[in-house]
Amino acid sequence: MVTRSHPETIIVIPTGSGKTLLYVVPTLLQRAEVTVVVVPLVALRHDLRRRCTQWGIKTVCFDQSVPLDQVHVVPSLVLVDIDLATSQPFLQFA
Fold first, then answer.
1. Exposed, middle or buried, 45 (CB in 10 Å: 0-12/13-18/19+)?
2. Is 10 within the bounds of a domain?
3. CA dihedral 25, 26, 32, 34 (to 10 degrees)
4. Rounded CA gap, 48 and 7, in Å?
5. Are 63 and 46 in contact (CB under 8 A)?
6. DSSP secondary structure string, 25-84?
7. Per the structure, how many domains does the chain have?
8. Residue 67 sits in which domain range?
9. What is the pLDDT of residues 45-88, one digit of tens each?
10. What whole-number distance in Å separates Cα of residue 73 and Cα of residue 87?
11. What mean pLDDT is predicted for residues 18-39?
């Protein structure tokens, strides 16, 4: 987790303890900024996108199968696979 005041913060929390709140609440409060979350599982990424969309958060799952020119929304939240997070296409997208 990277924040303005602590740019190198890492938080490790077990399953079911509310990790989603760590990025959903700041995303809701800071509409002008983009939050990037690395999510290791495809099913979890799509579930998070569905839930965040229901909460009114413009969410995009970064996926190399979707051309960047097809992304027509300016997201508040970007969900990306751990392998793609450091890839050249994602770095150009971000």
1. buried
2. no
3. -100
4. 24
5. no
6. HHHHH-TTS-EEEE-S-HHHHHHHHHHHHHTT--EEE--TTS-GGG--S--SEEEE-TTT
7. 1
8. 24-93
9. 888 889 888 988 888 888 766 655 666 667 888 888 888 888 88
10. 21
11. 76
